[in-house]
Amino acid sequence: MKRVCTFLLLFAGYLGLYILFAGSTTITDLVFGAIVSCIASLATMSLCIERYSRVLDLRRFLYLATYLLYYMLIVEPRAHLDVVKRILSPRYRPAIVAIPTKVRSSYALLTVANSITNTPGTVVVDVDEERGVLYVHWIDAKTFDPEKAREYVSRVFEDWASKIFD
What is the pLDDT of residues 105-126, one digit of tens each? Predict the structure, then answer.
């Protein structure tokens, strides 16, 4: 039963993404999307879900939706403006900074790393999962203290990722 639920959840998600990116709901697109989603679901179903009890937790989906809106409407525009400011002002100091994380699951860690990398001005260049440390290239390093750097770069992402995945 768990495998069927996993397959159906992944299939629905993949098909939804396919339709969103294709921008079309013609019969041809729906059939092709269903075939691609079926193959992707079968290929990834053993990799995607760690804890089945949390899959249908509506509260986590609401946190995810809220986080996506917050990220796209607030974090991204702020970061883009900061990078523009850095371009126009040649005074900045790039550095690679070690940032400790407090998230527990691999999905939460991945979410934090992706959020940092997708934010202009920062890129995760390495992850030490055992120590829970992200090595981040920061376009304008404000501090080299790991805890203070965490406050600047990843704390907000960690808070959301913990609510969604931990």
Answer: 888 898 899 999 988 889 999 9
Rounded CA gap, 98 and 103, in Å? 15
What pLDDT does residue 112 have?
A: 92
Alpha helices in 23-105 (DSSP H): 27-48, 58-70, 76-88
Query: Could you report the per-residue pLDDT of 128-152, keeping only the tens digit for each?
Result: 988 889 999 998 888 899 999 999 9
- Give the whole-angstrom CA distance, residue 130 versus residue 106: 11
Burial degree of 24 (CB within 10 A; 0-12, 13-18, 19+): exposed
Q: Find the angle CA(152)-CA(158)-CA(160) to the nearest 5 degrees.
A: 115
Task: Work out the number of other CB atoms within 10 angstroms of the CB of residue 62.
Answer: 12
CB 18 within 8 A of CB 36: yes
Side-chain-side CA neighbours of 24 within 13 Å: the count stands at: 9
